[in-house]
Amino acid sequence: xxFPTLSNDTFLRACxxxxxxxxxxxxxxxxxxxxxxxxATRAKAGSFMGLATNVDYATEVTxxxxxxxxxxxxxxxxxxxxxxxxxxxxLSFAEGEGPRFAKNVRDEAAVAELAVPxxxxxxxxxxxxxxxxxxxxGRVPLIGFSGSPxxxxxxxxxxxxxxxxxxVKSLMxxxxxxxxxxxxxxxxxxxxxxxxxxxxxxxxxxxxxxxxGVLADGMFQTFSLAYTKRVLAQLKRTGVDGTDVPRIVFTKxxxxxxxxxxxxxxxxxxxxxxANLGKARAxxxxxxxxxxxxxQGNIDPNVLFAxxxxxxxxxxxxxxxxxxxxxxxxxxxxxHIFNLGHGISQFTPPEHVSALVEAVHGHSRAMRxxx
Length: 371
What we know:
Order of helices and strands: HHHHEHEEHHEHHHEHEHEHEHEH
Number of strands: 9
Helix content: 40-55%
Strand content: 5-15%
Largest sheet: 7 strands, parallel
């Protein structure tokens, strides 16, 4: 399988802690509900899963934000819950309600039925990855992704999103043996799934531990971090292009556990808006010539509802909090990938995203000239 040569590798260079001309930028959920063209394509598809399972539609919406904004990476249009859906739990999306499973996993019988799904059931995802790579034509790299074992377990046990995580935490505390079994299956499923995305053409992969931050200290390390490690240990290190595939781990609410996460076998750690990038850099960023992690994040998505001049001010604040960029091309050093601290809101004005991208690229170039 061969793909067009990459013309903008700024994002991948930053993942590898190599010096870049500016701070690269992409947005979580960048292909989505805030864009009128996305809404039009979804209307044609008839439903969210109709969109995600149709290779042409998934390719179209993945590229839509890149037609509007000079972003530095594309991310596969899919959902984190495709894996449990392939396990037979019956995923559906009710308008305005979010995802829901027909079956939940709360007792021994349900846990005993779990197994790593047949990846042929997820062929539509891998076909979309390959299609998107060709459609990008080397413009920017493509990121593949999955939910973390713990985050998937939250939905599988609750049967849908939750405000209090009562069911999943009850199972975790009352029957840790069952929870560990769910997480083992999930970790091996996620690793297999991400490896198949890599084989299909993904140039970086990201694990979304969206609900890791709801766990108590100690529980996070035991029931989330341990299984993220299990995934990372199984991931392929080389993509179809013969180049390395950077791995990104994002735990919403995970900034308090950076000391625990700095030893993860990944290249990039994502942070939400509650973390200070400068402090995070001091903990995990390493120094020039020494091992460390690249950082990704972490502006509050709600900043995008402010006027453009305020967006620019907040962008500068985030870039300045990371500090002086790494500019020595002869060695590796601390690097930053700009992103939101969580997914973009569906109510975001697209012109405010333009202001964000312009501010990130402009201010980060100016910082390097002054470095």
